[in-house]
Design goal:
about 190 residues; alpha/beta; 5 helices; 5 strands; about 40% helix; about 15% strand
Length: about 190
C-alpha cells in the first residue's frame, strides 16, 4: 500500500507555495543561518526585572504603613489580671473618663476649653495604679473639633514633667485607639 497525499494543490495554493519556496531560497542564499541577536531582548528583560523589583518594594511598603496590633489567641490575659480598658469620651461640654468597671469621672470644660490639666492628673493616677497598662481609647463625639482631639491625645500620651520626675515613663499611654462616642455617653453623671 502506498500513502496517498491528501493535500492536493488547488489552483490558488500552488502560486503561494512557489512564492514561499522562492523566498526561503533567497533567504538561505543571503546567509539565513545567522545567529539570533538577543541583546535587545536582554535589555528589555533587565528593565522589566528592575520595574518588578521597584514595584514590589513599593507595594510591600504600602502594606506596612499601618502597623496594627491585632489580638492573638495565645496572648489572652489571665482571668485574674484583666486589662484596665481605660477610655476617654470627648463630648462638646466635658470629658468622661471610664475603665472596665464602669467608673466614670466627668471633667467639665473650663472657659478655655477642655480641662487638660485635670485629665493629665487623672491619667497619671491611673498609670500609678496600673503601671503596665499602655492602651487608651478615645471616644469622640462628631461635633468635637480636630484640634481638641489632638490636644487630648497629647495629654493622654505624654507624661507631665512633674510626674516624670517621680519616675513615671515619658509616655503614659502610647497605644491610642479612636472610636465614636456611644449615644448614651452624654447621659453619665
Amino acid at each position: 500500500m502506498t500513502a496517498v497525499d491528501l493535500t492536493e494543490d488547488t489552483g490558488e495554493e500552488a502560486p503561494r507555495k512557489a512564492r514561499r519556496s522562492r523566498r526561503l531560497a533567497r533567504h538561505l542564499k543571503r546567509g539565513g543561518s545567522e545567529e539570533l541577536n538577543i541583546a535587545s531582548m536582554i535589555d528589555v528583560f533587565a528593565v522589566l526585572v528592575f520595574f518588578l523589583l521597584v514595584s514590589s518594594s513599593i507595594t510591600a511598603a504600602k502594606l506596612n504603613v499601618l502597623s496594627l496590633n491585632l489580638p492573638s489567641n495565645d496572648a489572652a490575659a489571665p482571668p485574674d489580671k484583666q486589662p484596665l480598658q481605660l477610655s476617654v469620651s470627648l463630648l462638646p461640654d466635658a470629658l468622661l473618663i471610664s475603665d472596665r468597671n464602669g467608673a466614670v469621672r466627668r471633667l467639665d470644660n473650663t472657659p478655655a476649653g477642655y480641662n487638660l490639666q485635670a485629665l493629665s492628673e487623672t491619667l497619671v493616677e491611673t498609670k500609678k495604679a496600673a503601671p503596665t497598662e499602655n492602651t487608651i481609647t478615645l471616644l469622640i463625639s462628631p461635633d468635637v473639633p480636630y484640634e481638641d482631639v489632638v490636644k487630648v491625645m497629647d495629654a493622654a500620651r505624654l507624661t507631665p514633667a512633674e510626674a516624670r520626675n517621680l519616675g513615671l515613663p515619658r509616655e503614659l499611654y502610647p497605644l491610642i485607639s479612636i472610636g465614636d462616642t456611644p449615644v448614651s455617653a452624654g447621659a453619665a453623671p
